[in-house]
Amino acid sequence: QVQLVESGGGLVQPGGSLRLSCAASGSIFSIVTMAWYRQIPGKQREWVASIGSGRTDYADSVKGRFTIDGDNAKNTVYLQMNSLKPEDTAVYYCNAEILLLLGLPPSAYWGQGTQVIVSS
After folding, report:
1. Residue 58 class from Cβ within 10 Å (0-12 exposed, 13-18 middle, 19+ buried)?
2. Distance CA 58, CA 31 (A)
3. Are strands 2-7 and 18-26 parallel, antiparallel or unpaired?
């Protein structure tokens, strides 16, 4: 019914940049928030950044280096990652809180993940 498709991951050297994209499609009435999470094998998935209701928020570990922004017309969210560090290596997941119908509570959806590797 709703799909989130991420792109933009890859291999980058320390200090480099990557831009991730996440496009939502399907029977969407409106999107409440969109966010990025990341996960290292064997560890819990951690929140990275979110955008919605006119505000953006960032985890302390990425503040000043990552920027989240969105294109409402395209139901797409981006994560610009600068000054990347080896510890940013993870699978990055897109998350969205989506209203399928007016009057219903929002539902949470996840993308399939995109791998980011920061290594020399």
Report:
1. middle
2. 19
3. antiparallel
Cβ neighbourhood burial of 34 (10 Å; 0-12, 13-18, 19+): buried
DSSP string over the chain:
-EEEEEE--EEE-TT--EEEEEEEEES-SEEEEEEEEEE-TTS--EEEEEEETTEEEE-TTTTTTEEEEEEGGGTEEEEEE-S--GGG-EEEEEEEEEESSTTSPPEEEE---EEEEE--
Cross-sheet strand order for the sheet of 76-81: 2-7, 18-26, 76-81, 66-71
Tokens 């709703």 correspond to what residue?
2
Mean pLDDT by 10 residues, the chain (120 residues): 95 98 93 96 96 96 97 95 98 95 90 97
